[in-house]
Amino acid sequence: MMKNVLVIFLLLAISTGINAQTKDSSRIIIPELKLNLNKSGTSYIKGTFLAQTWARYSEFNPGTTIDGTPKSSYGDVGIRRWRIQVFGQLTNRIYFYTQFGQNNFSSLQPRHTGAFLHDAVTELKIVKQLQIGGGLTGWGGVSRFSSPAIANIMGLDAPIYQQATNGVNDQFGRKLSLYLKGEIARLNYRIALSRPMSVKNSVIAIPPISSNSNFNTEAPRAQTSGYLFWQFLDKETTPNPYMSGTYLGKKKLLNVGFGWVQQNQAMWHTTDLGDTSRTSLLLLGVDVFLDLPLGKKGAALNAYVAYNNFNYGKNYVRMLNGMNPANGINSDGTLNGAGVNYPMMGTGNILFAQIGYKLKDDLFAADNGTLMPYLELQYSQFQALKDPSVMFEAGLNWLIHGTHGSKLSLGLQNRPVFENNSLGDAIQTMRKNMLVLQYQIAF
Question: What is the pLDDT of residue 14?
Answer without folding.
Answer: 42
